[in-house]
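Troubleshooting entry. Yesterday's outputs looked truncated, so today I'm pasting the complete records for two proteins to confirm everything comes through intact. If either block looks cut off, that's the bug. Protein one:
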Amino acid sequence: MPALALALAALVALHDATREGAPTNRLAVAALLAGAVPFFKVFLGAQLLLGLGVALLLARPPRRLALALTAAPCAVATTALVLGQGGETVRVAIAPFDLARITRETLGLLPATGWRFAAWAASGRRLAGRAGLRPRRGDAVSPQRISRRGLAAMALSGWPLGLAFDVSAPEVLPGQRFVNDAAYLVEQSGPLLWLFTALALARIASNRARRAGVVALLVLLALPSTVQYAVKKSRTAPGRLPGAMVRAMDALERVSQPGDVVMQRPGARYPPAPVVLAGRRVPYERFTPYLTQFVSREALLARHEAVYRFFRTPDRDEALAIARSMGARFLALYGGDRVRFDTAGVLEPVTRRRAPRVPDRLSGRPAAPPPSSSTTSG
């Protein structure tokens, strides 16, 4: 959402900058906003660059300089992100209709092939066109409205690009599935398509005789998904935390500092209590396939093994070495969790609660025997 706001603001500033007698600083604002977009969402940075490129090709010569100056910082930022570390941990491949196939699997629909599958994949685009999502020629290609050209190109490109490519992590951990991030292109185009839809519907609704039909069309398009979302959320059980765990996290927050690391058993609840209730860090190693876009599969497996070993080893020196390697100062134990090394002299109880058990502080002072529920540090 911040990236969409920046992209739209860049187009608005570009539109103002190309008006007769516009202040020169408007162009600088447009360039600054366009250059910031990729850092919020690189997919939208690429799509904005595509829109500006289309507008540049269709623009009259006097306006091409403004478009080039706006597109330049966006191109530099997008290229740096794609060719940098992010480009090494993301796989981009041409995979026609892969996103549609994954969507069918997610919806529990039977696999489809041939023309029926292609028709199903393109049905949303056809519905969009019939609903008035196609920008009028005057809106999209008017020489006086170069920003609308870019906006139209961004709005109409998301669907075909999303269906054409597979953008995903090059590898995942055991038990995880590849996620096609090309879906972002489709999602980004949705709000932009509706901008044109709003303009088209406003023109139609200006006629009183058609207003009821416009309202009915809006209800037809928006109500089913809204009802489905509300019903699903109402049936979703809330995530509950025992009161003892909440109070233990309050104690942890009082004795720790932002940035402190809390050791907890691999596979514990997600999101982890120290993160959501105390704002403290936890060594996490396998909770989402997106992690392999930032760290290699081998490094994540090694992290998992180290955290697992901390809770299994009877060797106190090895356990403390693992904790030091992760910068951990606290240990969180939930329910039946325990450590197997001798904790005398290295764990200082922060709080004692009935199940679940939570942190001890790793310290050099002698500690009382671990209670059935505790928060310790050290």
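Protein two, checking that the full record survives here as well:
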Amino acid sequence: MTALANVLDIGNGRLHSLAIESDGSVWAWGLNSAGQLGDGTTTNRTSPIKVPGITGAFGLGGGVKFSVVLHS
């Protein structure tokens, strides 16, 4: 299992969760049936995975089958 450190914000969708770490990276885990974790797959994740290509994140949220990240 991946441990997160220095989490600034956490959010969730219907069956998935998201976190922003102090370096602006975004991590996601949970149901991924529509690609809502942002890792380019539809593989469900029981442990947090770093979402590729996102830096400078400062806000996030999610819904039933989507995630939203605000970043610079």
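Both blocks look complete. Sanity check on protein two: The chain has one domain: 7-67.
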